[in-house]
Amino acid sequence: SIRLSRMNLGSIIQAFRFNYSSMLLGVPDGSDWSFETMSDPGDGDPMHRAPFFQVSVEEGRHAVEFGYIWDDRDNRASIALLEAMRTNTTVRSFELGLWSLGRRHLAAIEDSLMQNVTLQSFDLWAESALTCEIADIRAAFLRVMDRNVCLQEIGINCVPLVDDGDDDSDDWLVDLGAPIMAAVSRNRHAFA
Hints:
- It is a single chain.
- This protein is an alpha/beta fold.
- It is built from six helices and seven strands.
- The protein has a seven-stranded mixed beta sheet with strand order 1-3-4-2-5-6-7, covered by helices on one side.
- 29% of the residues are buried.
- The mean pLDDT is 82.
């Protein structure tokens, strides 16, 4: 079943932050959430916009998928989503699409994942570019995985650094390195 809706982004983030998604959206604990942000050169406050989203149920799992959320130059919408994830205890899978991945987003991701104690899967898609170094991404996730014992899947995807003419999405996956993948494996075994 699929249910389409539209709601003020500020209300969605508040529900997300304080674990009210079951009351506000009718979504049970353990749901999968997906956000796609797009850069908007306008000066409007992204929190007052009302993006469309759909709630679907597949194989007994609820998924909340948002259409494009227009983010401002300061990335207030995407940063607010990440900050809300710090305290959320109901979402198990979080996917975020960004126009680009920079230091400010990376800091918000690190802060969120270091404090969240229930998220099991985190996927990030940077559609345009990285404005931070891959070494910085690895260092941030190494700090996260030294502390986080719940994450069992991590995917950081960005535009390939070298265009080989192949559209294979594996080219987009950032290699986080053996220590991080060992920590992910540790978490998987702990939950098995």
